[in-house]
Amino acid sequence: MLKCDPVTAVDEMQRLPFLTSTIVLFVFALTDATHARELRKVDIDGVPRTYALHMPKRVASGMPLVVVLHGKGGDGGTDLENLGWQDKAEREGFIVAAPNALSSYDGVEPRRDLTIRDRLRRTVRDWRGQNLAQWDGGANDQALIAAIVDEAARQYAIDRSSVYAAGFSRGAFMAQVLAQKMADRFVAVAVISPNMEPAPSTPSRPVSFLLLNGDGDPVFPLGARPKYILDLWRTYNGCPAPSDSHPAPPGMKIEAMGPCRDGTVVEYVVMAGVGHEWPVGKPFALRPSMQSITLDVIVQVIFGVETSARRDELRRHILAVTGLGRNPLVLFATRDRRLGSHAPWARFIRARDALHAALVSEIRQRRDAPDLEQRGDVLSQLLLARDDEGRAMTDDEVRDELVTLLFAGHETTATSLAWAFDLLLHHPRALSSLVAELDGGASEYLDATIMETLRVRPVVALVDRHVRQAVGIGRHTIPAGAIACPNIYLVQRRADLYQDPAAFRPDRFVGQTPPAFGWFPFGGGIRRCLGASFATFEMRIVIPEVLRAVTLRPVSRRPARVRREAVTFVPHDGARCVVTARSQPTARPSKTP
Ligand code: HEM
C-alpha cells in the first residue's frame, strides 16, 4: 500500500521527459467508478491458476496490455478495482490483467495435516521468486504470466510491442524477474516499493525500467536497496552516466537515464513519505511483521549485506523449516517411511536438508571470498576463527553454528516484540508514558518496558539442565542424572518477588534492577542466551520506530492469551491490532535510542 497520493504524483510524471508513451500505463488512479471484470482460469503444469482481466468497453486490435502484479497477501482482482486500473484502462484504452499468486495452501502443496484455522492463516498469496518452477511443488508463476500474455495476443490481437508489467512490493520483485527472464514479452516494467532484490540475470534484450520508491519505509527498514537495483538495470541496458537533475513535482526527486541501448530508459523516482505500510483501519497480526523484520536483521548480520540474492533464498529455506517446525505433529517425529513422503516429519527433513545444502554452499563460497578478512559479518568471523591448535571449523561445524543463530535469533525476538506491543496497547497509561519519554529523547522507560515484557511474557518458559552431580536446592536433593528445569515463567511471577506479579507494570523496573535470580528470560549460567544483548538492542530500535510511524489500537479488549508453539509462548492471535493513524516520517525525524 502506498502512503502518498500516488495518482497525482505519478500523473505529474507524464509531463517528464521519460517513458512518456508508457508511463501513463503505470498510473494508479483512484476514482469512484468500477467496471465489471472477469476472473479467468488457466491450467499451468496441472496447477489451476486464476487471473483477473479487464477489457475496455471498446476493445480494438493492437491495444497495449498491462500485467499488474499484486504484493504479498494481495490479489489481482482487488488491485484492479481498488487501485483504479479499470478506470485507467477505459480512459487510456488498454487491456489489464492481474494474475493471482498462489498461497502456500493453494492446491500446490496438500496440507492435510493442518487445522482449518491454520489453513486459513496460510492463505497469504506470494510470488515464487527466482526458481519459479522449482518452488513449492511447482508453482510456475512465469509460465502463468506467459500464458496470460499469449492468450491476450491470440484473443485480442494486442500490440506485442506494448506489453508492460507493473508490480508493488513482492509484485515489484516479480515484475523484475519477468523483465529479466521474459524480456521477449515485456518492453517496460514499473516497480513500486520493491521489497526484495532480484538476482543478477541479464535479460535477453534491454527493457525500460522505472523504479518508484518512497523515502518513508518505517516498517521495512531493511527492504530492497534501490541503488543496487538501479545499477543492475543500468548495466543491463547499457545506459550513459546518470544526469544530475530533472524537473520534478513537489515531494518527488527524479533521476533519469537514457537513451540507453535500443532506446530504453531507466528512471528512479523517489516520493516523500511513501513506503510499505500496514493497512489503516484493518485488523492485522503484528507478529508476522515482527518476524519479517527480525529475520531480515539476523540474516544480514550473519551473512552481511552483499549476498542479497542468495539471502532471499536462505530466508525462504529458513521460513520453510520454521513453518514446519511449528506443526505439533513434528513432535511425533518418526522415520517410519510407511507414513509417506507427505508426513510432517518427512517434509521437515526435506526442508532441513535443503536449508543445510544452501548454507553449506554459502559457506564454501565465502571461504573463497577475497575480502574474507575485511568482512565483519558473523559467517566470515566463524570462518576465520581458529582453535588453540590453529584449526579452523569444518563446513558442518560452521553450518551448525549458523543454524543455531538463525533459529535462536529471530523468532524469539519477534515474539517478544509482538508481546511488547500487545501489552502496551492494552495498557494505555504505560503506552503514553513510553511515547512521552521517546518524544523527549530518553529511553529509561523503554528499557523498563522491555524488561517487564520479558518478565510477564517470557517467550521461552523454561530451561533445562542435566544434573551431573547430586545437588541440594532448598529442601530438595536433585540426584545426578536428573533433568532440572528452572521455570522462567513461574519464577518471574512469584508474589514474593514481584508485587501484583501478573500485572504489566513497566514502572517496577524504572531505576530498579530485577531481583537476583528472579528475572532470567534469557536463561542463565554458562549456557545463558548468547544473543541477549543483541535481542534487547533490536527491541530498543524496533519499538520506538513502530510507535513513531503509526498509532495502533488493539483489536480485542483483553491482551492476547498465551499459546504454546513448539518451545515458545506466543500471543494466541499473533497480537492483532489496527493502525488508526500514521505519522509523516519526513515531519518527524527518526530518533534511535
Ligand atoms: C528476546 C529474544 C530472546 C530470548 C527470550 C532468548 C532466550 C533464550 C533462552 C531462554 C536460551 C536458553 C538459555 C539457557 O539454557 O540458560 C537461549 C539460548 C540461546 N540463544 Fe537466545 N533468546 C533470544 C534471542 C536470541 C538472539 C537474537 C540470538 C542470536 C543472535 C540468540 C542466540 C542464542 C543462542 C546461540 C543460545 C544457546 C546458548 C548456549 O547453549 O550456549 N538468542 N536463548
Walkthrough of the structure:
The chain has 2 domains: about 10-275, Alpha/Beta hydrolase fold, catalytic domain (Rossmann fold), CATH 3.40.50.1820; about 285-305 and about 375-455 and about 510-580, Cytochrome p450 (Orthogonal Bundle). About 35% of the residues lie in helices and about 15% in strands. The protein has 17 helices and 20 strands. Helix 11 crosses helix 13 and helix 14 (about 430-440) runs antiparallel to helix 15 (about 445-455). The relative contact order is 0.08. The model is unreliable at about 1-35, about 130-135, about 220 and about 585-593 (pLDDT under 50). The structure holds protoporphyrin IX containing FE.
Task: List the main descriptive attributes of the protein structure presented here.
binds protoporphyrin IX containing FE; disordered C terminus; globular; 593 residues; nine-stranded mixed β-sheet; single chain; 2 domains; three-stranded antiparallel β-sheet; alpha/beta; 20 strands; Rossmann fold; Cytochrome p450
